[in-house]
Amino acid sequence: MYRQRIRQQILYGQFREYTEVAEKLVALRQKLGLAPATLWAPTVGVANEVVWEIDYPDLATFERDNESFYSNAEAMEQWRLLWQLVVQGSTQDELLQKAPLIA
Questions:
Q1: CA 25/CA 67 separation, integer angstroms
Q2: pLDDT by residue (tens digit) across 25-66?
Q3: What is the DSSP annotation of 44-74?
Q4: Dihedral, CA of residue 49, residue 40, residue 32 and residue 61, to nearest 10
């Protein structure tokens, strides 16, 4: 299993606007049949931060979903709106894998 985690700090005063656009993207991912995204906000830590988490069963699904998402005009329109509400340079994107059991 793989988990993509995207952290973004939101411009002050724009959190509600960000979540409105983000909700549209989450719904669009569902409509496109992509892995569901969950949005989190730290209880303590960086102020005005949102963390996207998306779980994938394997790398092939991660690649297929990303290709579908980034080639969809409606998704890209919403994605660009979202990025206008993000502090430039604050985004961190990571891909985690389930910790292996080693001998």
A1: 15
A2: 999 999 999 999 999 999 999 899 999 999 999 999 999 999
A3: SSSTTEEEEEEEESSHHHHHHHHHHHHT-HH
A4: 100
Handedness of CA 66, 70, 71, 73 (dihedral sign): positive
Domain boundaries, the chain: 2-95
- The first and second tokens of residue 58, run together, are 């394997």
The β-bridge relationship of strands 92-97 and 49-56 is unpaired
What's 2-95's CATH class?
A: alpha beta
Its pTM stands at 0.88
Question: 3-state DSSP call for residue 2?
Answer: strand
* CA dihedral (27, 12, 41, 62) positive or negative: positive
